[in-house]
Specification:
The complex is a heterodimer of chains A (about 60) and B (about 250). Chain A is mainly α and about 60 residues long. Helix content of chain A is about 55%, strand content about 5%. Chain A has one domain. Chain A is flat, with a radius of gyration of 16 Å. The two termini of chain B are about 40 Å apart. Chain B folds into two domains: about 120 residues; about 120 residues, Alpha-Beta Plaits, CATH 3.30.70. Chain B is built from seven helices and eight strands, in the order βββαααβαβαβαβαβ. Chain B is α+β, with helices and mostly antiparallel strands and about 250 residues long. β1 of chain A pairs parallel with β8 of chain B.
Chain lengths: ~60, ~250
């Protein structure tokens, strides 16, 4: 059963996409008095744009 | 005096303020507890020049800022989850001040008290399944002689790729059902875009499972069994995570 150790990725080490998947795609939105519009921003779009730009720059 | 706001990391069952006195969050700022009856919020004070509506919108599009904030937020949520049952909040939940946090806690109290018992003693685990090409997948064929032949050949390649991904998706869906038997709750998220994940193969399942710590060994063994049935690298387990995918949110 060596598989289990190999299977367990360490979330802290490099899987930023997995983390953002959770932190931006889920979670309660408690819009506060200040950043009321946060819920209105399409975070997923923002995220995709940022990540795709980064990936493209890395490929250059 | 600098204008500040209160950043919320998580809502939890009551936590002693001393328990988080060494904890640092966003930008290395101290984390503190706001007590509110049978609930508590883990919060920090942030600068409005960084977390006001407009600067925040810019920062969220800056991957370096976003990545750092996500990890700092996650660190605090994980620390909270080690102390007590924790309902993580989405990144960048910012309230005007502590009074606004109390008001928010009042308004979500009922929902939170319903969710917390579901999260007691359970962790989130992620399972990603990739359509790893096996040796039966048609290899790229020799260049076609004519334009028409090229189109025919290309169409055939695309069809076979679609069929292969369809088959992998159906198989992965059955696998999801098998794993869900070991979980208190399960969710399928949108598979991650290959350009983002940098994965070599297309993702056909991006699932999250809420697993009781008592059932963790059985769940992991089931994932290992599953992985043994797929080509190497086809099944990836991540976790344990705080239960990010199992808290209610109002826009999904």
């Amino acid at each position: 059963m060596t598989a289990i150790a190999e299977l367990t990725a360490e979330p802290q080490a490099g899987s930023l996409v997995d983390l953002l998947d959770r932190l931006l795609g889920t979670g309660v939105v408690l819009a506060g008095d200040v950043t009321i519009s946060l819920a209105g921003i399409d975070l997923v779009t923002v995220r995709l744009r940022a990540l795709i730009m980064t990936v493209r720059e890395a490929e250059k | 005096m600098t204008a500040t706001a209160t950043y919320m990391y998580a809502i939890t069952r009551p936590i002693a303020p001393e328990a988080v006195s060494d904890l640092r969050g966003i930008g290395g700022t101290p984390v503190r507890v706001i007590e509110h009856g049978e609930l508590a919020a883990l919060v920090g004070t942030v600068d409005l020049a960084e977390f006001g509506e407009r600067p925040l919108a810019q920062h969220l599009a800056d991957l370096e800022w976003l990545g750092r904030a996500a990890r700092e937020h996650d660190e605090v949520v994980r620390a909270a989850a080690r102390l007590t049952t924790t309902m993580p909040l989405r990144l960048a939940t910012v309230c005007h001040d502590d009074d606004a946090v109390h008001a928010r806690l009042d308004s979500v109290r009922g929902a939170v008290l319903t969710v917390l018992p579901e999260l007691d003693g359970r962790d989130e685990w992620g399972v990603k399944i990739f359509a790893v090409a096996d040796r039966t997948t048609p290899a790229e064929t020799a260049p076609a002689a004519s334009g028409a032949a090229y189109l025919t050949q290309r169409r055939r390649q695309l069809t076979s790729r679609d069929e292969w991904i369809d088959t992998a998706t159906r198989t992965a869906f059955r696998a999801f059902g098998r794993l869900a038997e070991f979980a208190a709750a399960s969710r399928q998220q949108t598979p991650q875009d290959q350009r983002l994940s940098g994965a070599e193969h297309p993702m056909v399942l991006n699932a999250a499972f809420l697993v009781s710590r008592r059932d963790e060994d059985a769940f992991r063994a089931a994932v290992a069994d599953l992985a043994a049935e797929w080509p190497p690298g086809g099944v990836v387990l991540t976790g344990p995570w705080p239960p990010y995918s199992f808290v209610p949110n109002d826009d999904r």
